[in-house]
Specification:
Blueprint lengths: L14 H14 L5 E2 L11 H12 L12 H15 L8 E4 L1 H13 L5 E6 L4 H8 L3 E6 L10 H7 L4 E7 L11 H12 L5 E5 L15 H4 L7 E6 L12 E4 L2 H12 L7 H12 L3 H22 L14 E2 L20 H12 L1 E2 L1 E2 L9 E4 L4 H16 L4
Parallel strand pairs: 1-10, 3-4, 3-5, 5-6, 6-7
Antiparallel strand pairs: 2-8, 7-8, 9-12, 11-12
Helix pairs in contact: 2-10, 3-10, 4-5, 4-9, 6-7, 11-13, 12-13
The structure holds pyridoxal-5'-phosphate (PLP).
Amino acid sequence: MSVLAKRLGRIKPSPTIAVTSKARELKAAGKDVIGLGAGEPDFDTPDHIKEAAIAAIRAGDTKYTAVDGTPALKKAVQAKFQRENNLAYGLDEITVGTGGKQILYNAFVATLDEGDEVIVPAPYWVSYPDMVLLAGGEPKIVECGQNERFKLRPEALEAAIGPKTKWLILNSPSNPTGAAYTKEELKGLAEVLLKHPQVWVLTDDIYEHLVYDGFDFATLAQVEPRLQPRVLTMNGVSKSYSMTGWRIGYGGGPKQLIKAMAMIQSQSTSNPASISQAAAVAALDGPQDYIKESNVVFRERRDLCVAALNDCPGLNCTTPEGAFYVYPSCAGVIGKKTPDGKTLESDEDFVTYLLEAEGVAAVQGAAFGLSPHFRISYATSTEALNDAMARIKRACEALTD
Ligand SMILES: Cc1ncc(COP(=O)(O)O)c(C=O)c1O
């Protein structure tokens, strides 16, 4: 009898973390590698946030806190939802966890029974299907292609909803495509959802602040208040404030769900780190200019990548609204031969070729449920990006029929 649970057979390790580790290993072995796999900003956490953490340590805020967040952090989250999203939540409708990841995981464990379905638009963030599977549910993948700007259309949503559907996951701006839903697009989805009262919606808004060209971010519960009683609005400080290592995410939703999620957290990890919570209060309540400043840099890098990728034979890249990813199609290189005679059969072959021939680490679209594409994270220095783009172009030009 295996020591490992059968449940484990349903999931796989995160492919994005695998690429980052492989790039790190190659670098450590002395190879000249540019990692474009990471899902975190390359900027440092702003000083006023670090200072708040240091002050918390000095003040002795180093003990257990309330399981799903200190009153101070819940108040800061409440104020954030009201200020930025026009969403009113009571303090008992707010939960704080160890990263956005824990919020999602708690929600699925708290709600999914064997066989319950979760609609996951593809391309998706790698963890959604596996979290659903781990919680005993079934991901129902709905492909949203480049011609739909990688967004779920109302007709596709309608067609995907069935008697077993419990949740829809909406991630805007998206990892891996950077696509973000306009208010009108959300309204279109809301119309379908209003007809299906058994379907709950998890909106993953973790990239909310990373939008460019004046894009007006909106979240579903704000656009259609009638849905708020069955929406879990998830967010966190990881991406907006360069705080990936601090591990603070939060959610707003109906009391019954929030209470159940807190119960799961109480029997697993208990409270997120007390010091990180104090830092998150400073992030949410403090000056927000940092976001504007980093967005100027991200936007420049996005434009640099889109232009450079569209200049590579065989690649095609749309301009996304937000996040720090682009998701070019590599359909035009499939079937071509590399200089050492290997035929590229898939996006996985293509990213392997990029890594081996030019030392550029990107992630294959297959990992996100939509091929043939690959994901580039531009959360890396502009200099490294310029270098990487030149290498990708060289790699594409070296392919033959
Ligand atoms: C779409 C999406 N949701 C959630 C998360 C998790 O964020 P956190 O670091 O807060 O757990 C990530 C991180 O990569 C993400 O890309």
